[in-house]
Amino acid sequence: GEYSHRVDMKGGDELSRLADEFNELTGRLQTTEEVRRRFVSDASHELKTPLASIRLLADSILQSEHMDSQTAREFVSDIGEEAERLTRITEKLLTLTRLDTARPVQTGPVDVAAVVERVEHMLSPLARAVEVALELHLQPGCLVRATEDDLYQVAFNLMENAVKYNLPGGTVWVYLTGEAHRVVLRVEDSGVGIPEEDLPKIFDRFYRVDKARSRAAGGTGLGLSIVWDTVRQHGGSITVHRREPEGTCFQVCFPRWQEEGGEGT
Ligand code: ADP
Q1: CA separation (Å) from 47 to 36, 59, 78, 224?
Q2: Taking CA atoms, which of 54, 216, 229, 259 is between 20 and 30 Å from 199?
Q3: Residues 104-151: pLDDT tens digits?
Q4: 221: CA distance to ligand 1 center in Å?
């Protein structure tokens, strides 16, 4: 056909270059398709587990003829907890879907320190309950181009994890520094840490180092994927490394909002 004729005319080098490009593209499509399929299958699995528990609890109540009301109440309360879990998972799945569809990122300078302080305010009851200290070292005047809600989500997920995966008597340090062209937010904790071999997978959807611990803390394994997608959507980057002698350090960089004449100068 015309297509092969055209490729022939361009000679062997061109042909093999095109073939390479074609193969590379097919490979990438397959990977995307595979990632998508795995996501759907993982999501179904995550939703099935609480549903199965609800089913089992309901059946136990219905089938036992002489269940005392105290036990029945406990079962119903468990059902409520599983339902809450389902709500958390579906809310986060919706957030991820929203992030998947390219949308114009709202412009507007957001003051990162103010957002972090709001997160601290929200987290302080939890931190007190588990005896973890929150220490903020925030440079004022760090503005980024973002939506406030998205930035809040990022700071909240990182700081909540730093509290959740900590130990009694532990500390969470949040550092905010402004550089010439970027704003750096660092969330460090003295907690349980993440094994070196798990670090590359930590941003994957549903990935959890310790499923039992995450579950007990109400986790879904989606928080860090949301952080990752959000940071990328705002033109930022995120890295994670083990902290010496213990704990974890997450570092997020956002392009800095430049006063007068917009950005990128
Ligand atoms: P989850 O809802 O389970 O907290 P995330 O996506 O927020 O899900 O985090 C994924 C996993 O990464 C967690 O289950 C936990 O094992 C690990 N993790 C995240 N943050 C920390 C941290 N600061 N210290 C230790 N482990 C962490």
Answers
A1: 17, 19, 16, 19
A2: 216
A3: 666 779 999 999 999 999 999 999 999 999 999 999 999 998 889 899
A4: 7
Residues 6+ apart with CB under 8 A from 138: 112, 113, 116, 117, 174, 175, 176
How many whole angstroms from 14 Cα to the centroid of ligand 1? 48
- CA-based nearest residue to 226, from 122, 108, 94: 94
Residue ranges of the alpha helices (H) in 101-178? 112-129, 148-164
What DSSP character marks residue 106? P
Ligand 1 center–CA 247 separation, angstroms: 12
Q: Taking a C-beta distance cutoff of 8 angstroms, is the pair 136, 116 a contact?
A: yes
* Pocket residues: Cβ below 6 A from ligand 1: 157, 161-162, 165, 189, 191-194, 202, 207-210, 214, 219-224, 248
CB 197 within 8 A of CB 209: no
**Centroid of ligand 1 to alpha carbon of 222 (angstroms):** 9
* Spatial separation of the C-alpha atoms in residues 192 and 187, rounded to whole Å: 14
Answer yes or no: is the ipTM higher than 0.95.
yes
Q: Which secondary-structure segment (H or E) carries 239?
A: strand 237-242
From 96, 163, 202, give the residue whose CB has the most ligand 1 atoms within 8 Å, as the site to mutate. Answer: 202
- Give the H/E segment covering residue 221: none
